[in-house]
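Request: Give me one sample?
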Amino acid sequence: MPVFVDTNVLVYARDASEGAKHRRAREWMAHLWKSETGRTSVQVLNEFYVTVTLKLRPGLGRDEARGEVRQFQAWRPVALDASLCEKAWEIQDRHRLSYWDSLIVAAAQASGCERLLTEDFGAGRDLDGLRVVNPFTREPG
């Protein structure tokens, strides 16, 4: 079953200064690559790129970050379009999430995921059949 990965997990997998979160994020990433079940969105990849090139210390160079983003193309990232916006507005109103978080939920649903891997949104929360999993309190698998 595919698992949608939020930005914070991708960033922690790169940020060695985060100790336990870094190790656990890397375990999850290895599991998702091996099982070919990782999914994400163009929005998440854009957030990842900005974070690792501008905010992370030490950060990645543009070419290295672009290379990593290109690797995630194998996960068939969901693109933003009019129907995804409409779905995100419904989710925003129903679940009282921010618009940006609602776009992540809508993209996860559009990619057929039943789990959303993130430290945000509240672990165990059910968002219309999408279960929030905190990767830092749960092992991969």
